[in-house]
Design goal:
NADH-dep_flavin_reductase, single chain, Pnp Oxidase, Chain A, oxidoreductase, globular, mainly beta, Flavin reductase family protein, three-stranded antiparallel sheet, seven-stranded antiparallel sheet, 12% helix, 169 residues, Split_barrel_FMN-bd
């Protein structure tokens, strides 16, 4: 016999309901970067999704009130970095409002198309922004992969129940 959802405890749609449900969804952790008019910008994202294999394309969401949004709204290229379980502090730095995200100890260099590329990550991509789709208080950015490197060592960092965590064997 299979268990059925308890419909009597269902909640009406709200931002809190969505947050509560997605806290139960384990997600990989990425940092998205771009070159801004005043220097590099970036933010931690758990909304990264593969969209298309041909052409290779991905998507991620960004809030329009985020400090990185003004630069992301103008960027022609972005960097996408898949973080390893050893990079919890880096993920927290790029998630923290007002943090010096590119100051020490962040390891980065200017990469192709002027995109900031982070060091020590499991994988990185440089992508051309193809579209910015309005989605409530966010924009879904679609980006076509230009080049990258999937060869970093380690295991992925995850986000679950409001905290960074690692895979368990």
């Amino acid at each position: 016999m299979t268990a059925t959802p308890e419909l009597a405890t269902a909640h009406t749609a709200s931002p809190d309901l969505l947050r509560s449900v997605f806290r139960r969804h384990a997600a990989g952790v990425a940092v998205i970067t771009a070159r801004g008019a005043d220097g590099p910008v970036g933010f931690t994202a758990t909304s990264l999704t593969s969209v298309s294999a041909d052409p290779p394309m991905l998507s991620f969401g960004i809030g329009t009130t985020a400090s990185s949004w003004p630069a992301m709204s103008q960027a022609e290229h972005v960097g996408v970095h898949i973080l390893g379980e050893h990079q919890q502090e880096l993920a927290a730095t790029f998630a923290r409002s007002g943090a010096d995200r590119f100051g020490a100890p962040t390891d980065w260099r200017e990469g192709p198309e002027g995109v900031p590329v982070l060091g020590g990550v499991l994988a990185w991509l440089v992508c051309r922004v193809a579209a910015r789709v309005p989605a409530g208080d966010h924009r879904v950015m679609l980006a076509e992969v230009v080049l990258g490197d999937p060869g970093g060592p380690g295991r992925p960092l995850l986000y679950h129940q409001g905290r960074f965590t690692a895979l368990r064997d």
